[in-house]
Design a protein that fits this description.
mainly beta, 6-stranded antiparallel beta sheet, 4-stranded antiparallel beta sheet, globular
Length: 197
Amino acid sequence: YLVASWPFWQGGFPDLMAITATRDNTQITITTKASINGGDAGSFPANQPTTVALNQGDVLELFAHAGDLTGSQVAADKAVQVIGGHYCTQVPIGVAACDHIEESMFPRQTLARDYIVTSPATAGLPNGRVRILRILAADSGIALSYDPPQGGAPAALANVGDFVQIGPSAEAFKITADKRIMVTEYMVGQDYDGQEG
């Protein structure tokens, strides 16, 4: 699994990931992009694989009080559920409100090379709500293209777990990669443009 999160907010709120085991004695190797210091789970140094064992129904929650867990990797020898998110944040940072983000991650083998992204529409905003996109690399050495072209959008991702951010924008477009990627969307906070959605 790759984990999509959102950066630590200086307001004191951490980004997070949670892993739930479905079978006893599940061996899970986690490589976090941000350091996890202390707590009941122990420490997880950034970019260093750490292995833990969980039994059926056990949940390992990791909170980063600095940095961004986006791009962290999880590998397990039995089926698990992986969730990425944030306890309370702003999208983008500096724009209210305190939004809780939580999403189940898909296994890497289910990720695709082509994605069509559209802006979420609401009754008050039929043309779509402004959002921020993140594109994560599931493989190394990925070439990216966009249709229509997206000004300033990067054309490559070097390593597994690297990501690029596009937006804020409400434009719909297609993302094409020559290897597997994961795409996430984050709607902006309610005060971004004065239009709640």
